[in-house]
Design goal:
Length: 488
């Protein structure tokens, strides 16, 4: 009998497309009606032992029954659907009889650890043809269905190494943090593997975990944790495959010794200021340097609820004093932040404070687009008006223009207006016979407003607007010809 657990793990890891002899995935498009299949389901059969129900295969998915696989493994994926609102229950087992007289019995499982349909995976050296099958199970509704949903050929998993991970010594064990290290030796044939660490104080029962990382190839990984001086820690690297196969490395230990006779810096977090439409200023103060000649200070900030802190650029202080940093913010998002001081791997943090950039309730500027003027051989003048400044003291105004149908707008240089009024700008390199569109825009503290779109056409000056016409004597005149002067 083939070890179904091992075969199932391998198939999930292989990443191959499982196909039958026809070269396509098995389909249930031609399934018979319920009353033509699975008619041998029985409830509360006392001969079933731990299984309350038994169901004979009714040839659903029979197009996948034959898999000829010389030198490889034949593979059949079976699905048992509940056939009603009642849930299926474990344990469940499937016994498959092949045309050559051999038999396979495998246990069922819920894919991904969930509920719903049960899945069975059967492997057979060289493949073969399914002749009959019976499933024994518990739970389910009145019309359960047993189907071969897929079939194909896969390589023998005995040649595929398992997922392996090793734990490596902790590094950078400083006054408040440590780096845990691990190495993913093999992905076991999977396309990706999740890795993380479990750690705890020695003598405690509960493991804490770091955030998971996804690796697509073998290699090192690490994670930083907070530690307390004078405490012994133990940790191990962990790898979890897509089919939930979990492996762990050896348990290693480290100790964060007390730091003797060192006075930490003292840092305080101050209120955020200058919270405008797109930025905010974080403030802090280095109160004391401790036992150090200089201290690096910066801020860590993030949206409330986020996992990762974002640090600002550090600056070095040689004495107590205030410091600040400007950060980008989004309207309507609440942020938390803290001041940080670091000296020779000794780290001190201030209190964590919060702020939020509310969506402003302000009157916006208003701009209008006026018709273009002075449309000559190669240039045109675009015109607009700043109707109101809204709640702003100054507004930057400019134009966007393009050939009608083009994707990208071209822009003129901005002008700053401190009161309502007209503005204009000349554009060049125009093409004749082409329709242009343009609009006026205003920007104040990242708030953008736009006027309506206007259009104009650069006409060919050598092409008359109307056909030539004859004068009273029958002589043609050119409407663009300058009339000759008359003398008496």
């Amino acid at each position: 009998m083939v070890d179904s657990t091992n075969r199932r793990r391998f198939l999930a890891a292989s990443g191959v497309t499982v196909v039958g002899l026809s070269g396509c995935l098995g389909s249930n498009d031609d399934e018979p009606d319920d009353d033509e299949t699975d008619a041998d389901s029985s409830d509360d059969n006392p001969d079933n032992g731990e299984f309350a129900r038994e169901l004979q295969w009714g040839n659903l998915g029979s197009e996948n029954a034959t898999q000829e696989c010389p030198g490889e493994l034949g593979y059949w994926k079976w699905i048992l659907t509940p056939g009603g609102p009642q849930a299926l229950e474990l344990p469940a087992e499937l016994t498959v009889q092949f045309a050559d007289g051999t038999e396979q019995t495998v246990e069922g499982f819920f894919p991904g650890g969930g509920r719903g349909a049960l899945q069975f995976e059967v492997f057979k050296d060289g493949g073969g043809t399914v002749e009959s099958a019976v499933v024994r199970f518990n739970g389910g509704g009145a019309n359960p269905r047993l189907t071969i949903s897929e079939g194909g050929c896969v390589e023998d998993p005995d040649d595929i190494p398992d997922v392996t991970v090793t734990t490596e010594p902790a590094t950078e064990v400083n006054d408040s943090t440590a780096i845990l290290n691990g190495f993913l030796e093999n992905l076991g044939g999977f396309g990706s593997v999740s890795v993380f660490f479990e750690y705890r104080e020695q003598g405690t029962a509960i493991w804490e975990t770091t955030d998971a990382q996804t690796l697509t190839e073998p290699g090192p990984f690490d994670a930083e944790i907070d530690v307390e001086p004078g405490t012994d820690y133990e940790f191990r690297a962990v790898a979890v495959a897509p089919d939930n196969t979990t492996v762990r490395g050896a348990i290693l230990t480290f100790t964060k010794d007390d730091v003797p006779d060192i006075t930490k810096p003292t840092v305080v977090t101050g209120p955020a200021t200058e919270i405008n439409e797109s930025t905010a200023t974080l403030n802090g103060e280095l109160r004391e340097l401790g036992d150090f000649d200089d201290v690096n200070v910066f801020f860590e900030y993030r949206p409330v609820g986020a996992d990762e802190w974002t640090p600002t650029e550090p600056e070095t202080l040689t004495g107590p004093g205030p410091f600040s940093a400007e950060v980008d913010v989004e309207q309507g998002v609440e942020y938390e932040y803290r001041a940080v001081a670091v000296a020779n791997d000794t780290r001190a943090t201030g209190e964590t404070l919060t702020f939020q950039k509310e969506i402003p309730d302000v009157d916006l500027p208003d701009v209008a687009t006026d018709p273009a003027t002075d449309v000559n051989e190669s240039t045109a003048t675009l015109n607009g008006r700043l109707v109101t400044l809204g709640d702003f003291e100054a507004v930057d105004v400019f134009f966007q223009y393009r050939i009608v149908g083009a994707e990208e707008w071209l822009e003129t240089a901005p002008q700053t207006l401190t009161e309502p009024g007209p503005f204009s700008d000349e554009i060049g390199d125009l093409e004749t016979g082409v329709v242009y569109e343009f609009r006026a825009l205003g920007v104040a503290n990242d708030v953008v407003v736009a006027g309506p779109i206007q259009r104009f056409t650069k006409e060919d000056p050598d092409k008359p607007d109307k056909p030539d016409k004859k004068d009273k004597k029958g002589k043609k005149t050119d409407k663009y010809e300058t009339p000759k002067s008359k003398t008496k």
